[in-house]
Design brief:
Helix content: 40-55%
Radius of gyration: 24 Å
Distance between the termini: 36 Å
Number of helices: 16
Structural class: alpha/beta
Number of strands: 13
Order of helices and strands: HHHEEHHHEHEHEEHEHEHEEHHHEEHEH
Strand order of the largest sheet: 3-10-9-8-7-4-5-6
Shape: globular
Largest sheet: 8 strands, mixed
Length: about 475
């Protein structure tokens, strides 16, 4: 399609942008024609994936390309491309941040050298030794790999989950535990069971992008509940409840992503009172519980699952690749959730569930969690001090969990900053990605486990200085 010249001083991103611009201008690439995928273009031209991401993104912002969900990139139709008499209006440059597209890039570009914006732990922070021992034990035991698992999941792991939850003061039996393909499937099953198109649902704002996309796909109306450094903005929540009749509130009281804020006991009690008063279900996403060294109450423990559905996961602390999560609720809801799980995807993987069971019953599992929490606390302190030294405001410092949520007065559009960072091999977590109503934001989510490399801080310092000059 075009020839790149790596030996020239012109950056490859600029060469791609100008080359494609020329092809479009000469109509060698006509309106509505599809461009090669990011990976295909990168492979053909011998460049990195993030170089192509940056080039395509610039062309989208300039109004020359358009990104279509699940389809790819296409040459955008301009006014002079319209068929005669069509009455179509001229295409205008669309510089808006496409959160769905960006989220896809996060997983396509996992191999970027620096990942302060990602949502997982580094490999050497995970329970790799325990997983290897579990793999060896599973292989030696002659496990049957030819059949399906059970609808509710591997019984031994369900019993282990129930025992673990009892330690957190959530009294459940194994029959109330449904294993899922990660917490994402758990949240999806709960949403499809509880909601129908047109229903109103509350979510944390800022909050979990995948959850918001999934809820919008179901056709429900999403209402954002503002997060504060101490948990929830309860006056704002009560004002919202006076105007709306939500069916559910999907929330993370503990170490919430992206803010890592923690809801206090009084807040949890009041939230339960509001749920009872206004008759909505609380869906508690507690996937970071194992990263918390403190023993804290949860909505599930305070209510004993009355009007609460509880979601957990092993993906954050054992391995994100295993995709093992779980959902816990009152018995009358569990059969419906299990049936929905079977209809949508049959059973979850018995092999991965057995691997996780081997890991969590390993004698070194608790020692691993203790070490992980200490390591995260140290990283929190180090990254917070670096942020403050560069003039960032930190939303909340929990000294636990994965994230710090921060903003700098000179960085007003972190979506644009993220595009520039990708060209230098840095994956950032722009604030706009996490908002219920996407808009330019100065906030960034920092994964403390990935944020201590000096190259990140040099990039941020240079970006801040450039904006001061401008």
């Amino acid at each position: 399609m075009l020839i790149l010249h790596p030996e020239q001083p012109t950056p490859l991103v600029s060469q791609i942008v100008e080359g494609l611009r020329g092809l479009i201008g000469a109509q060698k690439l006509k309106a509505d024609s599809k461009l090669p995928s990011i990976r295909a273009f990168a492979a053909t031209h011998g460049v990195s994936v993030f170089t192509v991401v940056e080039a395509y993104d610039r062309l989208v912002a300039q109004g020359l390309l358009v990104s279509r969900a699940n389809a790819g990139f296409f040459v955008k139709r301009r006014s002079d491309d319209n068929p005669a008499g069509s009455g179509a209006t001229a295409a205008q440059p669309d510089p808006r941040f496409d959160a769905r597209w960006y989220l896809r890039q996060i997983f396509e570009n996992r191999n970027l050298p620096l990942k302060p914006g990602c949502g997982w732990l580094p490999h050497d922070w995970l329970f790799e030794d325990g997983m290897r021992r579990s793999l060896r034990s599973l292989a030696a035991g002659g496990t049957d790999i030819g059949g399906y698992g059970l609808p509710f999941g591997h019984m031994a792991l369900r019993m282990a989950v129930a025992d673990s939850l009892c330690e957190r003061q959530i009294a459940v039996e194994a029959g109330q535990v449904l294993l899922t393909q990660g917490s994402s499937q758990a949240l999806d099953l709960v949403a499809r069971q509880l909601l129908k198109p047109g229903d109103e649902v509350l979510v944390d704002d800022p909050g979990y992008p995948n959850l918001m996309f999934m809820l919008r796909f179901l056709g429900v109306n999403i209402i954002g509940v503002p997060r504060t450094p101490t948990g929830y903005d309860l006056p704002a929540l009560e004002a919202l409840l006076a105007l709306h009749r939500p069916k559910a509130f999907f929330t993370q009281p503990r170490l919430q992503s992206p803010t890592c804020s923690l809801a206090s006991m009084p807040q949890l009690v009041r939230l339960l009172q509001l749920a009872q008063e206004h008759q909505f279900v609380l869906v508690e996403n507690d996937i970071y519980a194992d990263m918390d060294a403190s023993s804290r109450p949860s909505l599930a423990s305070l209510s004993q699952l009355r009007q609460v559905v509880y979601v957990g996961s092993f993906s954050k602390t054992i391995s994100p690749n295993l995709r093992v999560g779980y959902v816990v609720a009152q018995p009358e809801l569990m059969e419906d959730l299990a049936q929905l799980k079977m209809v949508s995807g049959l059973t979850s993987s018995d092999i991965t569930e057995r691997l996780v069971f081997g890991a969590v019953t390993d004698g070194r599992w608790r020692k691993h969690l203790k070490s992980l929490r200490e390591r995260l606390a140290e990283a929190h302190s180090n990254v917070a001090r670096r942020l403050e030294a560069q003039g960032f405001e930190i939303f909340h410092e929990p000294a636990a969990g994965l994230y710090l949520w921060a903003r700098h007065p000179d960085l007003t559009d972190t979506a644009e900053l993220s595009r520039l960072a990708a060209a230098e091999g840095i994956m950032l977590g722009p604030g706009q990605l996490f908002l219920v109503s996407p808009r330019p934001s100065g906030w960034l989510r920092f994964n403390v486990a990935f944020s201590e490399d000096e190259r990140i801080w040099r990039f941020l310092a240079r970006s801040i200085e450039e904006r001061k000059v401008d």
